Amino acid sequence: MPDKHLSSQFDSELSSVSTRVLEMGGLVESEIRHAIHALSQFSLDSVQTVEDLEDRVNQMEMDIDREIASIIGRRQPTARDLRLLMAISKTTGNLERMGDEAARIARMVQSIVQGGAPRSLPSSELRLAADLAAGMLRKVLDAFARLDTTAAVAILKEDDLIDREFDGFVRKLVTYMMEDARTISPSLDLLFVAKAIERIGDHSKNIAEFIIYVVKGADVRHTPMAQIESTVQVP
User: Fold this and answer.
1) Can you give the residue ranges of every domain in the chain?
2) Beta carbons within 8 Å of 165's beta carbon, 6+ residues apart
3) Fewer beta carbons within 10 Å, N or C terminal of the chain?
4) Which of 185, 170, 167, 177 is nearest to 108 (CA)?
5) pLDDT-based confidence at 2, cuts 50/70/90?
6) What is the mean predicted confidence (pLDDT) over 184-213?
7) What 8-state DSSP symbol labels residue 124?
8) CA distance between the termini of the chain
9) pLDDT greater than 90 at residue 136
């Protein structure tokens, strides 16, 4: 009975810290949405909202890290439980960096607005890539909640779409800068925005890899897709 009681407490602690990660992910989702709104509407109010959310995200990362350290110190977990805690720690780090990228987008929007850049710049064309990145985060948080490796593989494949959008946007920006030298400075700001969006997708991809690590015990980073699919299919 005492062992069962301790096991039940441990399961509750794991569930609690996992829930905290999802709450942090929700804050990052909101941060990204406001960054996208700031970009599409050149809204300085949304820029300020992103900055406020960034402070909360940073605090949550530190709180969760302390909670994980406490659980490991008290429970000394092994096997899948230890993998889960390691993955949670890495996931919160990636979520925090997504928040950093959203804040970077907001700062670039502020720079564009204050610089009086022409609205003819193709900022709206970043919306598709931004929506893809936000969608990837939403999907990976859902996959994390269910430890769904099939969904994780689909997310890994989706990252290529964002990469292609980024490459196409860079080519378009180069054309703008060549045609009108006055657009060089704001175009460079947009280039940093595009790179931030791409990195948000990369961090979602990292979290998807951690899901596979928890469930299968396999580190699939830097692994060909065919091998990852084979790993996930193995019972």
Assistant:
1) 2-233
2) 128, 129, 132
3) C
4) 185
5) very low
6) 92
7) G
8) 32
9) yes
Rounded to an integer, what distance in angstroms lies between the CA atom of residue 112 and that of residue 91? 32
What predicted TM-score, i.e. pTM, was given to this entire model? 0.91
Alpha-carbon Rg for the chain, nearest whole angstrom, is: 20
CB 104 within 8 A of CB 196: yes
**What was the pLDDT predicted at 6?**
58
Q: Measured between alpha carbons, how far is 145 from 141 in angstroms, rounded to an integer?
A: 6
Position 207 pLDDT exceeds 70: yes
Query: C-alpha angle 192/196/198, rounded to 5°?
Result: 115
The percent of residues above 70 in pLDDT, for the chain, comes to: 95
19 and 135 in contact (C-beta within 8 Å)?
no
Q: What is the mean pLDDT of residues 22-50?
A: 93
Minimal CA–CA distance to 198: which of 59, 96, 105? 105
The answer for residues whose C-beta is within 8 angstroms of residue 44's C-beta and 6 or more apart is 38, 109, 110, 113
d(CA 101, CA 216): 30
**∠ at Cα 209 (125, 26), nearest 5°?**
60
Specify the DSSP class assigned to residue 162.
H
Please list, residue by residue across 40-61, b when 16 or more beta carbons sit within 10 angstroms of its beta carbon and e when fewer do.
eebbeebbebbbebbeebeebb
Q: Which fold has domain 2-233?
A: Methane Monooxygenase Hydroxylase; Chain G, domain 1 (1.20.58)
Helix (H, G, I), strand (E, B) or coil at 1: coil
Of 93, 101, 94, 90, nearest to 166 by C-alpha is: 101
